[in-house]
Amino acid sequence: MALVRERRQINLRLPLPDKSQRRPSFPLPLPPSSHSSTTTTTSAVTVTTTTTSSSSSFSSLSLSDFTKLTVLGSGSGGTVYKVTHKQNGGVYALKLISSDPNPTHLRQLCREKEILRRMISSDSPYIVRCHRVFEKSDGDLAILMEHMDGGTLDHTLKKEGTFSEPLLANVAYQILNGLKYLHSHKIVHRDIKPSNLLVNSKWEVKISDFGVGRIMGRTLDPCNSYVGTCAYMSPERFDPDTYGGNYNGYAADIWSLGLTLMELYLGYFPFLLPGQRPDWAALMCAICFGDPPTLPEGRGSEDFRSFVSCCLQKEAAQRWSAAQLLSHPFISKSR
């Protein structure tokens, strides 16, 4: 008798753009009082400001103290402006996030808000500094952050070309320290990619954009929801039925890091050929059922190839942690 096996159905649905892609309308509130947590009510809006002692120099600021200079970026996570302080001339980045009644968007907004409040007190030089979070009564947010004048690593790759191994080792060292800090505070980023990694003129690289991040309750809390940028998702994120029962949620960030470093080195996304346009269904199948990408024959040193392999293990439990990768020869030899 022939044995018939039931075919397992894989969810290949792709998220569609939602209303949050519009640029938000954000009325400027009145200046808050000097208390560390204040609610100011006007006829138009109620604004809640959040501060800590580490950001006391920003406690008396309001959005009306800043002038927009230009748009730095825009997407489903909101619009980021380059702004300047009217009195002291300081330059910052201001991210405006419009609320949306969609339950999924609301959950992501609440997560980002909670993570950003933690980041206000962050002392890590590898995380983009959050100076202030302004919250409207209707749920809209304005986030005042440090400005990284070099833009994203994605922009740097397109402008300056591929990264050398010594430069990549320095970049990886900084990203790993940022991930180590986040993971030690039970925060999973879930969207590590070149466009979410910022650089300044000193070549300080910092992690940004916590729009799909998550605060983990326990070390092995499941973290397999369908958020983040599809191309950089780990196999267990796409196919939790196969991989999701035995993985550490932080390992997904390490997979994304491996793909990011390969892309910066090669100049194209590792699962695609140079110039190839992505077919998302085929890409997801390659991530879930194919072998992890490797550097082309003859490209990359033995240490770099080993480092990438430690990041891109199909089984999440076999991937090295951020702390372990910091001791890898590819990193340690460059320090």
TrEMBL record:
Chain sites annotated for binding ATP: K95
Ranges for region Disordered: 1-43
GO MF, one annotated term: ATP binding
Annotated Low complexity bias: 33-43
Keywords: ATP-binding, Kinase, Nucleotide-binding, Phosphoprotein, Serine/threonine-protein kinase, Transferase
BP terms from Gene Ontology: response to other organism; response to stress
Keyword Disulfide bond: no
Location of the Protein kinase domain: 66-331
Top EC group: transferase
Enzyme Commission code: 2.7.12.2
Domain of life of the source: Eukaryota
A Pfam entry, by short name: Pkinase
Cellular component, GO, one term: cytoplasm
The reaction(s) this protein catalyses: L-threonyl-[protein] + ATP = O-phospho-L-threonyl-[protein] + ADP + H(+); L-tyrosyl-[protein] + ATP = O-phospho-L-tyrosyl-[protein] + ADP + H(+); L-seryl-[protein] + ATP = O-phospho-L-seryl-[protein] + ADP + H(+)
Keyword ATP-binding: yes
PANTHER family: DUAL SPECIFICITY MITOGEN-ACTIVATED PROTEIN KINASE KINASE 5 (PTHR48013:SF9), DUAL SPECIFICITY MITOGEN-ACTIVATED PROTEIN KINASE KINASE 5-RELATED (PTHR48013)
Family (UniProt): Belongs to the protein kinase superfamily. STE Ser/Thr protein kinase family. MAP kinase kinase subfamily.
Protein's name according to its UniProt entry: mitogen-activated protein kinase kinase
